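Researcher: Watch the backbone:
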Amino acid sequence: MRSYCGVHKGLFGLVWLGALNWGLIGAFNFNLVHWLLQSSVMAERVAYIVVGVAALLMLASGVCKKCKMCCDPAGMKK
């Protein structure tokens, strides 16, 4: 299993939460974020913005120095 830095772990978690939420909306018309935040419209908007920013950071960040060894194909352990 790959070992990532704390920032990448947090970003992965947020992106997975967003993906899970969209999957639930598509499959069952169930909005997990809406349910978790008890219909607070402002809190939902903030959650969606945070997940969107996390996705953009994942795209833009590439590989951090701590993660370079585990993510760089040339540096992967066998």
